[in-house]
Amino acid sequence: MSVVISCGEPAGVGPEVAAKAWAALAAEIALTWIGDPRHLPAGTPVREVSAPVSAPSPDALPVLARDFGPPAVPGTPNPAHAPGVVAAIEEGVALVRSGAASALCTAPIHKAALIDGAAFAYPGHTEFLAALAGVERVVMMLACDALKVVPATIHIPLAEVPEALTADLLSETIRITAASLTRDFGVARPRIAVAGLNPHAGEAGKIGGEELAVMIPALEALRGEGLDVTGPLPADTMFHAAARSRYDAAVCAYHDQALIPIKTIDFAGGVNVTLGLPFVRTSPDHGTAFDIAGRGVADPTSMIAALRMAAAMAAARARRPR
User: Fold this and answer.
1) 111 marked ligand binding residue
2) Is 229 left (phi over 0), alpha (psi -120 to 50) or beta?
3) What Enzyme Commission number(s) does the record list for this chain (predicted)?
């Protein structure tokens, strides 16, 4: 499988972890990096190409070279790089949508620099990718070998979660998750566990009414559609090893309810996956890390996992009958 990597923020750790991940996977996956080769760590062997490579390149990192203008200063984002960063994402999407590449892995971006330098109008990567794909609703999954979690609501204040967690949102999140588990992960009949919003999943309405009013009717309707859905379950008993063996993915009510368990289980190796796109997109589950950029100490574990997962998901899609 051919995976393209959009460069992300040049002043962050993205170029470093991409180079380290290529070194680890050079004989395993066909990787092509999109960006300004001057922003890669000094000494990175580079081979400029005109299209994504279709075979592993163990001797040099294949690069779709683009001129971003000024050199990158580690730890100091430059808005002048923003148009190039945005263009790299757009090019990556175009390549996977055309079939020239099998999957897209995106390095972390810095939203403030994109706003200042390119009038970036999206809350983040995920929303921009959805707009490029013409998709109204996508879902964020965090995945590692031991656990896959999906927050139904994401970057909103906790006080706003009860109102935002509608039956429509929860149902569509579960449907998209189930479809992706089959298409992208080869799970024939996905088992999805749903965490309640309140402690003890509301305890029959004694500790909050959202489970009774919203969640239980939505889950019953989904079971009527043939989906294997359990819950709402008390979140505090969902993530030990025995509980995890009973489902393929957990859908949670809010951001931290989903991310705390996966970051506890595998802090370095988690992967951010966007479900519901017409192409495969993964990303390392960390940010730009300006505080350590340019020091050569950035951990590539999450980027390596993201690239491996992207290739595996693309292979799973390719095996599906059309």
Assistant:
1) no
2) beta
3) 1.1.1.262
Task: Write the pLDDT tens digit of every residue in 213-260.
Answer: 999 999 999 999 999 999 999 999 999 999 999 999 999 999 999 999
Quick check: is 168 in a domain?
Answer: yes
Cβ of 290: how many Cβ atoms within 10 Å? 16
Range of the domain at 73: 1-138+277-322
78 in a known ligand binding site: no
Q: Is 281 annotated as a binding residue?
A: yes
Q: Is residue 270 part of a domain?
A: no
Best CA proximity match to 184, nearest among 96, 310, 61, 302: 310
126 marked as part of a ligand binding site: yes
Q: Are 151 and 256 in the same domain?
A: yes
Q: How many domains does the chain have?
A: 2
Q: Based on the domain organization, do 188 and 171 belong to the same domain?
A: yes
- Pair 2, 126 in one domain: yes
Q: Is 20 annotated as a binding residue?
A: no
Q: What is the pTM of this model?
A: 0.95
Q: For tokens 């971003």, what's the residue? A: 68
Are 112 and 1 members of one domain? yes
**CA–CA gap between residue 289 and residue 275 (Å, rounded):** 25
On whether both 107 and 24 belong to a single domain, the answer is yes
Task: For residue range 15-46, list pLDDT tens digits in order.
Answer: 999 999 999 999 999 999 999 999 999 999 99
Could you tell me if residue 133 is inside a domain? yes
Note the pLDDT tens digit of each residue in 250-298.
999 999 999 999 999 999 999 999 999 999 999 999 999 999 999 999 9
| 271 assigned to some structural domain | no
Any binding-site annotation on 272? yes
